[in-house]
């Protein structure tokens, strides 16, 4: 008899992650004021990525997109808090998303 564990179903696709964060792009590249629809996307992503596997999946989507779009990582790491989302993020070009988990601020 073989026992098969159910696979976790990811709550979103990478395309959805990029779409949610696209309103943030100008801010993430140049700074300045954060558009309201940017914070809306950050909040939507935070609401979707509640489990460790989902947070790791989001990291795996964000990492290559951040490199591709040439974002400022310091601004990216400050964005959740600036949008009122209680996540601590340390995205960088060399982050290991398999070990990384978005953490709630304590």
TrEMBL record:
GO biological process terms held by the UniProt record: lipid transport
Bifunctional inhibitor/plant lipid transfer protein/seed storage helical domain segment(s): 14-97
Record key words, sorted: Lipid-binding, Transport
GO molecular function, one term: lipid binding
One family name in Pfam for this protein: Tryp_alpha_amyl
Gene3D superfamilies referenced in this protein's UniProt entry, alphabetically: Plant lipid-transfer and hydrophobic proteins (1.10.110.10)
Family per similarity comment: Belongs to the plant LTP family.
Purpose: Plant non-specific lipid-transfer proteins transfer phospholipids as well as galactolipids across membranes. May play a role in wax or cutin deposition in the cell walls of expanding epidermal cells and certain secretory tissues.
Name used for this protein in its record: Non-specific lipid-transfer protein
Provenance organism: Chenopodium quinoa (Quinoa)
